[in-house]
Amino acid sequence: MIALIILGVSLVLLIYVFFCKNRKSLRLPPGPPGVPLFGYLPWIDPVRPHVSLTELARKYGPICGLRMGSVYTVLLSDPQLVRQTFAKDAFAGRAPLYLTHGMMQGYGLICAEGDLWRDQRRFVAGCLKNFGMTKLPGTKRDKMEQRILVAVNECTSKLKELTMEDGIDPLETLHHCVGNMMNDLVFGKVYNENDQVWKWLRHLQEEGVKHIGVAGPLNFLPFLRFLPRYGKVMESLIGGKLKTHQEYQKIIDEHRARREKMDSFLAAFDEAMSTNEGNGYFTQPQFYHLLADLYGAGTDTTLTTFRWFLLFMAAHPDEQKIIQDEMNELLGQKLPSLEDRLLLIRLEAAIAETQRLRSVVPVGIPHGTIEDTQIGDYDVPKGTMVVPLQWAIHTDPSYWHDPLSFKPERFIAEDGSLVKPKAFLPYQAGKRMCVGDELAKMILFLFAARFLHSFVISVPSGMRIDLEGECGITLIPKPHRLVFTSRE
After folding, report:
1. For the structural domain made of 1-9+23-486, what CATH number should be given?
2. For the chain, what are the domain ranges?
3. What pTM was computed for the model?
4. Given 146, 298, 388, 485, which residue has the most CB atoms within 10 angstroms?
């Protein structure tokens, strides 16, 4: 094992020396110096990496280059630059990270590249459109709205039963309801809250997210996998993935036995496999990884954003009342629906401000260069990780007045209409921007509108809200308690 570690370190050092020699012939973006093997990693705060990287962006400018272990990295902190860069094919790859390239093997959608990624993205976009993800009203969108409202109604009903004077942590209830909604869309299956398999799947997901956060250095220093601590983490991650895939196969077998036609990704993929329409991309490993990506990405980001929204509503009761007054005035006793999105401007602005101030992925989803290319006047080598630094963009005082304050009015124009500033990139931009952005908007609006129609959300007496959060893969709220007082 010691020999393997020495070999790994030697390879990284060779890469570092080679890069330093070739750096002289390239015009690379400005950035901080690093040390052999580790690059700038020792100076990045593992608890608040988005803050450390934002400080670099403020110091070195909108295009900043640095080495993170074995991975050369470029930080982009200008919104127009992000849009222009990610619109190009050269930047449509995935970041060369050990976990994504090694453990996921390029399958799924998040870690896929090239023709596989293009084909599967078209497939997912087509499914979403067919299921009812659209801005335009119609039968399909109505059907999607009803699927979302099943989860919303279950969630509000459970919280009415659970709430008490000293408050509750809504995470378990929210995770069950949002997760079950994604189960319906992805697998065509829902679970009872106390179902042991469902509890196990949720636990496995939470553990996986936590372990990947702990294993972060593995992405940049792959030789660490030979150390006992990280070796156990790798075993846990790989074991969890295999167990999850086994459970997915059971769901696939159940679907095939029922032979029911349903609107789910699982059913659509299975049909494409059986009719040979996949052109070689609809394989069993791709099936498992795509299902995992769609469930994980859809659940984690939406759940986390809504948790932050509830916290901001509790922390800003005056803002909450403005939204509820607007709802009373425009809707009366009518329950809010998707057709009211154009009316409830203050609510939409509050959701947007939540996404700005607490970017779910504060360092963005990194891309990778698939060829030698350029950003502006700077050279960017093939295999570079390019980071759209959302935290820096969303808190930049040159774009946002008083950027660390919660002010939904910044998304409202003088004529009272909703406005989305150019520095607002909650779903990123370019060829790999979130394929389910419109679905996320539908879900967030319906959950937020129905919750504020049903409850006054507040903080238990004597308690203080912590709005800092904990940064792993996503920036999530710390454990907290809220009081949900029925408005009825």
Report:
1. 1.10.630.10
2. 1-9+23-486
3. 0.92
4. 388
